[in-house]
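Many introductory courses stop at the sequence. We go one step further.
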Amino acid sequence: MGNAAPAATAERSALLQIETVGAVMTVGLNRPAKRNALNDGIILAIQDCFSDLPESVGAVVIHGIGDHFSSGLDLSELTEQDASEGLRHSQMWHRVFDRIQYSRVPVIAALKGAVIGGGLELACAAHIRVAEPSAYFALPEGQRGIFVGGGGSVRLPRLIGVARMTDMMLTGRVYSATEGSAYGFTQYLTEAGGALPKAMELAERVAANAPLTNFAVLQALPMIAEANPQTGLLMESLMATVAQSDKEAKRRIRDFLDRKTAKVKPA
């Protein structure tokens, strides 16, 4: 009995390929033979990873090992669940994906191949999504007789709208990477093989931001956007005051005024 927990932890860790490059941690979903289908083990491994991010990490990149980001929920895990077990299972996914969305550091998803079902829900929990041409997006739950359970009904409509998600679930419509970039699934579209390098480039850039500014963008901005205008404006003023009073902000503003940092120019 004493060895059960370490064995379970080791099994979970094998489901993720975690590396650190400078201030960026990469988290690779590591079930390539299953197109990185998400079972309880890999979800709990993600929970472990985001529960204890080292202080030296300034950004995280999530990607898929092999040809796909993730083909979604491993349906073999649903066959024996009753209603109460299904409820707890869905809420467990919510807790884990919340750890990504409300992480102390920005999280970038590098997408290729299948980004469907639960895999799309996982990608939606990230703050920035980068796709290469092989990526495609779908929600086959409607054809499986089930419903999204990993927070997709909350997060995805905020990216693409309720009508588009409704169409996906009712008809099984599949969106290409090009369509996904145009309709809001992703913010960046790269050349073939370019999603992970681009995600790393972005991660290195955002990791170099002032930590308090990143905190404001990740934690305060979503709340401000959903608040009524007057509440949002007050929250903005408070957050701006806190950010500007930070020593790091004062140093960066001084550097800009002393012409030690470059002015913003078009790419």
